[in-house]
Amino acid sequence: MSLKSERRSRGESKRVLIVDDEADIRELLDLTLARMGLLADCAGSLAEARHFLATQRYHLCLTDMRLPDGEGLELVRCISETVEDLPVAVITAHGSAENAVCALKAGAFDYIAKPVSLEQLRGLIKSALELPSMDETGSVSDTATLLGASPAVEQVRSLIERVARSQAPVHITGESGSGKELAARMIHTLGARHSRPFVPVNCGAIPDNLMESEFFGYRKGAFTGADTDRDGFFRAADGGTLFLDEVAELPLSMQVKLLRAIQEKRIRKVGATAEENVDVRLICATHQDLKLLVEQKLFRQDLFYRLNVIELRMPSLRECREDIPLLAQHVLGRLACAAAVEVPPLSGASLAALEAYPFPGNVRELENILERALALMSGACIDPVDLCLVPAQSACSAAASGSLQDHLDAVERQAIAEALKESGNNRTAAARLLGVTFRSLRYRMARLGMND
User: Fold this and answer.
1) Residue 159 pLDDT > 80, yes or no?
2) Exposure winner among 97, 117, 415, 451, fewest CB in 10 A?
């Protein structure tokens, strides 16, 4: 059956704009789309592409980076500014990581490298066409919603909704307990991959010698104890989202392998001879300063460049104190439901105490405080005494002469110094006493100027 006959037999279909100056590439893409039941218009230049965009509505645009009359980035920016509902994917030269990152930063939905892999191309097209339209409201469960009406939370919520429409890697920063994984789950839920797996990985909890096999999987017989084939995190998240929490904990040897997997969209299992295509959206998070780690040669600059395409900063609870009453009521309701008891009211004095508290542990600390108060309360409502905030408030008062961060740094410095003293200056043992990884302790000591 000819290409035109295929199109006639389909009736109405979604339409894709192909922009490439090479006729054979246009024909390949056109044929692939036709076999997927899609219509296509082909343009060989920016001028032709703009003409098509002005006269036709499209569901996806595929554009080469180099065109006779300009750059594909110009088209990406133009569409991002004028046709927000249209995802754009760029075709880059093999190994041109910088072009791919630039395109993603400019607003591209995703990228694919030449020579074009038809399997990867079909996966990209399916993901783009599954994006909800801008006027559709995404459904996020009550347990995965960013609550609050403060300006800081509204700004983050708005950015999450925009980021969800892209496949670009996202780097979520923020203090411990500020809701970084919650933001990652929202990005996944509101995006085209919502029906596929969301796989969270705590990078700091994996021993160095198991990193490669955990991430990429292994073949039977690859090493002692490998009795069967096993998939890794990348394969488990195929088609969905891989969330790397505390990505700063990855050793340098693993960072190299992760960089290749991101750039090539391919992995090799331990013990395998061939690579496999994988289609994952990567979201990472850390409370550490990756830029500082790059300067200290503890984190690869090229990997940071690939992970930090879009940065999303989660505000601390101190930056949105007006949301504390709402958050407290929501958390109490969930805790009371789990304990099968009535939701106790918070007294006015308790709310005032919570709003004045510095919350170095952010929302996670708020949850712990309320869970403890629910278990220990003696009256009909939760009073300030049930919250047990006195030590924290006293500490905050002691720090009144300086900033909160200065006080927290002083507390952290003292705790590290005591652990080092108790362990006889053995940093590995000190890290174990503090309940952190060796890499985390090394980073904290560098940040606090304790390496001398």
Assistant:
1) yes
2) 451
Q: Is 18 helix (H, G, I), strand (E, B) or coil?
A: strand
8 Å CB contact between 395 and 410 = no
Q: Which CATH architecture has domain 317-398?
A: Orthogonal Bundle (1.10)
pLDDT in tens, 201-257: 999 899 988 999 999 999 988 888 888 999 999 999 999 999 999 999 999 999 999
Q: What's residue 113's pLDDT?
A: 85
| pTM of the predicted protein model | 0.78
pLDDT tens digit string along 249-262? 999 999 999 999 99
The hierarchical CATH code for the domain 3-129 is 3.40.50.2300
Is the four-CA dihedral 302, 214, 187, 155 of positive or negative sign? Answer: negative
Q: Does this chain's domain 3-129 share its CATH topology with 142-313?
A: yes
CA–CA separation, 384 and 386 (whole Å): 5
Please give the CATH architecture assigned to the domain spanning 404-447.
Orthogonal Bundle (1.10)
Q: Which two tokens stand for residue 23?
A: 């006729």
> Candidates 3.40.50.2000, 3.40.630.30, 3.40.50.300, 1.10.10.10; correct CATH number of 142-313?
3.40.50.300
Mean pLDDT to the nearest integer, 130-151: 68
Query: Which helix or strand (DSSP H or E) is residue 337 part of?
Result: helix 324-339
Q: How far apart are the first and last CA of the chain?
A: 75
Mean pLDDT of the chain: 86
Q: Tell me the DSSP string of 44-68.
A: SSHHHHHHHHHH---SEEEEESEET
Buried b (16+ CB within 10 A) or exposed e, 307-336: bbbbebbbbbbeebeebbeebbbbbbebbe
pLDDT over threshold 70, residue 7 = no
C-beta of residue 329 within 8 angstroms of C-beta of residue 366: no
Nearest in space to 313 (alpha carbons), one of 353, 352, 285, 342 = 285
Look at residue 9 in the predicted model and tell me its pLDDT: 41
Residue 273, SS3 per DSSP: coil
**Where is pLDDT greater, at 167 or 13?**
167
Going by their DSSP bridges, the two strands 66-67 and 70-71 should be labelled as antiparallel
Can you tell me the distance from the alpha carbon of 301 to that of 294, in angstroms, rounded to the nearest whole number? 6
SS3 labels along 171-227: EEECCCCCCHHHHHHHHHHHCCCCCCCEEEEEHHHCCHHHHHHHHHCECCCCCCCCC
Domain ranges of the chain: 3-129, 142-313, 317-398, 404-447
